[in-house]
Amino acid sequence: MRRVEGRLCEEFTPGYYGLCTVGGMLSAGTTHLAITPLDVLKVNMQVNPVKYNRIGSGFSTLWREQGPSSLWRGWSGKLFGYGVQGGCKFGLYEYFKKIYSDVLKDQNKSFIFFVSSASAQVFADVALSPFEAVKVRVQTQPTFAKGLVDGFPKLYSTEGLGGFYRGLVPLWGRNLPFSMIMFTTFEHSVDFIYHNIFKKRKEDCSRTQQLGVTCLAAYTAGAVGTVVSNPADNIVSSLYNKKAETVMQAVKNIGIRNLFTRSLPVRITLVGPVVTMQWFFYDSIKVLSGLPTSGGINRRLEESNISA
Questions:
Q1: How far is 8 from 288, CA to CA, in rounded Å?
Q2: Among 289, 273, 294, 263, which Cα is nearest to 30's?
Q3: Which of 17, 41, 74, 232 could link 174 by a cystine bridge, Cβ 3.0 to 4.6 Å?
Q4: Which residues in the chain belong to E strands, given as ranges?
Q5: What is the DSSP string of 241-257?
Q6: Are 242 and 254 a contacting pair, CB within 8 Å?
Q7: CA–CA distance from 87 to each of 13, 46, 297 (Å)?
Q8: pTM here?
Q9: Which of 307, 266, 215 shows the shortest CA–CA distance to 43?
């Protein structure tokens, strides 16, 4: 593989995948930490929709009844849990995209994006599940624990190892469709912007323009993925808080219409900017390392295959 001057590492090398993993950890962990108050409200709206039925009144109720510190409850789970998940998601997506593009040469790009993101998300959610189990309980049960340090041992002592993975299957049900739609929409949005709006190759655009494309494609991808994953997100919150024992019971309790609409406005408010900032930070780390921004499969992978 040809070495490009000024790069911290070359694409599709162990160093590259390591950089993508670190970039994913930093971008996901910090952005999820920043929107902890919205996440606290979202989870409470899902668990107690009568009491927390609107964004404005929901914040007021939390502030009045539990104090301003309640808005940051579960921050450690957001920072470390989603940091680990982000590292696995972004790092493994890059890895699987290269592997599958080499093996599935005759498949269209959408299929490669789908299977790459799904494969990465499976591992990412296994890593996230213990953090999410503690975080949701901390956010909705004020007497449960203060954070991860006391939450992990308490959950283990009361529910055993299975308590950490109680919501893993619904977590996959929420995050797999979201990840598959998000990554695929992002990739196609990037291609669409360059081909139909800029009408020139990514390589011919400035770094600032490339990062602008990243942000626009990321927001589009986040909004589309949020709508698709909303039913599973409601089910996850119901199971973690023992409002239901099984997925089917949760669906029955919540109702089909509410699965798609409950907490959707706050999730779009939350997820769109989060996904945008994640991709922006992630690609900024790539740019600072001398690498191109994300998006696109043809040119980079074809070049690596030719030089291999």
A1: 9
A2: 273
A3: 232
A4: none
A5: TTS-SSHHHHHHHH-HH
A6: no
A7: 16, 27, 21
A8: 0.84
A9: 266
Residue among 90, 95, 158 at smallest CA distance from 127: 90
Cβ-based neighbour number of residue 265 at 10 Å: 13
Residue 59 · residue 44 · CB < 8 Å: no
C-alpha span between 47 and 67 (Å, rounded): 19
Token duo for residue 82 = 């989603």
Residues 251-297: tens digit of each pLDDT: 999 999 999 888 888 888 778 888 999 999 999 999 999 998 998 65
**Residue 96 CB neighbour total at 10 angstroms:** 19
Under 8 Å between Cβ of 197 and 270: no
Q: Measuring CA to CA, which residue among 282, 265, 300, 202 is closest to residue 42?
A: 265
Q: What is the largest CA-CA distance in the chain?
A: 63
Cα separation, 68 vs 82, in Å, equals: 23
